[in-house]
Amino acid sequence: MEVLTILIPVSLFMGGMGLVAFLWSMKNRQYDDPKGDANRILSPDWDDRPKP
User: What Pfam families does this protein's entry cite (predicted)?
Assistant: First the structure.
């Protein structure tokens, strides 16, 4: 049970860091892509690989 005194604060710290990273990405508009992959895949030149 003594290990819980270490694991609980560590897990709360890591969860907090994950929340901070998520909020930072939302603030910097990392998820803001109105066109998105759904529209990009429909364009004829979406695949930039050379054709054989």
Answer: FixS
